[in-house]
Each structure stands twice: as C-alpha cells, then as structure tokens.
Write a structure and sequence with these properties.
single chain; about 260 residues; globular; mainly alpha
Length: about 260
C-alpha cells in the first residue's frame, strides 16, 4: 500500500509529456548536481531493494524474538509512516527505511504470535508469498501482463477502501475489545465462513496487482532515465508490497486454520 507515491511522480509513466509551461519551469529551475544527473538503473534499484529487504527481516527477527508485545503499536506506527510517505512527492531515504523497519517489525511480531498457535504457519506464508511474487514476475516478464492507467486508478480506489476498513477494524480490536482479528473473525451470515476469508483473498489479489505496478513503474523509470534518487522509492514500493503480501497470507492462513 505504499505505491501511491508512484502516482505522484509522473516520470514513472511512459506517456508523460511536457507542456510549454513545464519546459519553462525546467529552464528556470536551479542547475542539478552530478548525482542528480545519474539515471535510475535496475542494478541500483535491486541493490536498494535488497537493503530494504534485509532491514525488514532484521527488524522482524528483533521484534519477534525480543519484543512481540510491540506488534500492535508497530502496526499503528507503520500505517502512519506509510501515509506520510504516500503524500510526500520525494520521500527521504531515512523515512522510507523507518517505514520498512516498523512494518517488518509488525510482520515479525505477528509471525511469532501466530506460529505459537499454528505451528508451521510462517513457512506456509513465506512459500505462498514467494509463489505469488515469482508467478507475478513471470507473467510480467514473459506474458506481457501490464496494468492500464484506468486499472491503476481502480486499484488505488480499492486500496483506499481497504485501508479505511483496516483502520476501522484495528480501532474495534484496540478500543472495542474485539477478539481475534476483529471483524475478519465474524462469520458471514448464514454460513460458517469468516469474513476474513474473502477479505483476505481480496487483499492478496490487491497485493499481486500492486506487484505488477511495481515492476511497471521500475521499468518505466529505467527506460526514461529518471534521476537515480528514484531508485529508493522504487525499491521501497517493491519491498513494502512483499511484506504486506506476507502479512496478508499469514492472517488468511491463521483464519483458515482457526476455523
């Protein structure tokens, strides 16, 4: 859910055009530094993505082993930081790293809590996340799967709706004293299926579509040779989506195994 930051950067879109006023603005802008002249590359993006991924794993291990009680507070902090990132045009790498670290800590704490109740669930969630990532990458690379501009807008609306639901559900658990996963644990009327099953499947599909937009934005950025600093944003979006996908699988599997 970090990727709305991409939609605020027109350089990631292949059909961006410059108007007369835009050309004049660029002409009057201050001269750029040498670093800003360097273009975004796949290698640089991958290097930063690996760094963010290791940061997320390290934070997950630290919270999971030493402070699983911080899981809920970290969930709130990571959500606030994610919103800050999403509404900044050019987020600082330090802010991106802090967001990844807190979200990774949330994933680690949740993993330890659920693994104690459902042994093996962490490995299942990792396998499911890796399968979706590799499958989505294969479809993007070899089948030419892309997300249109209209579909991207629909995706953003769906993500906003899901974010609002998550806030309400979190508040009901935190303040209302609801057990388990809150509204997700409630059964659909007339069935024995918890709401968390269809909601979890919907969230996984959202994350999979978001991975496609991650790949697409990275490709457009490299092809258009946008400034190297955008590698931080691209890497952040990719790693954040992966961690989010893992958390959704972890929660969905817990709901299914707890029925």
């Amino acid at each position: 859910m970090a990727n709305p930051v991409f939609s605020r950067n027109q350089q990631f879109h292949g059909n961006a055009e410059l108007s007369t006023s835009g050309l004049e603005e660029q002409y009057n802008a201050p001269s750029v530094t040498f670093d800003e002249r360097l273009p975004m590359t796949y290698e640089g993006t991958l290097t930063r993505a690996v760094g963010f991924f290791l940061l997320a794993v390290g934070s997950a291990a630290a919270i999971g082993l030493f402070a699983p009680g911080l899981t809920m507070p970290l969930g709130l902090v990571s959500f606030v930081l994610m919103l800050v990132v999403a509404f900044q045009r050019s987020p600082h790498p330090g802010l991106l790293a802090a967001t990844i670290a807190t979200f990774g800590g949330l994933a680690g704490g949740l993993t330890v809590i659920l693994e104690s109740q459902y042994p093996g669930i962490a490995l299942q969630a990792v396998a499911a996340t890796a399968s979706v990532f590799l499958g989505t990458l294969a479809l993007y690379r070899f089948a030419g799967v892309r997300v249109s501009a209209r579909a991207t807008k629909v995706l953003m609306v769906a993500m906003v709706g899901y974010a609002i639901f998550s806030i309400v559900n979190f508040a009901m658990i935190w303040l209302g004293g609801m057990d388990g996963f809150g509204l997700r644990s409630q059964e659909i009327p007339g069935t024995s299926i918890p709401w968390g099953v269809p909601i979890g499947i919907f969230a996984v599909l959202l994350a999979a579509f978001l991975l496609v937009t991650d790949f697409q934005f990275i490709e457009n950025g490299v092809e258009q040779r946008i400034p190297q600093k955008n590698e931080w944003i691209a890497a952040y979006g990719l790693v954040f989506t992966l961690v989010w996908l893992y958390v959704e699988f972890l929660r969905l599997l817990a709901i299914l195994r707890g029925r």
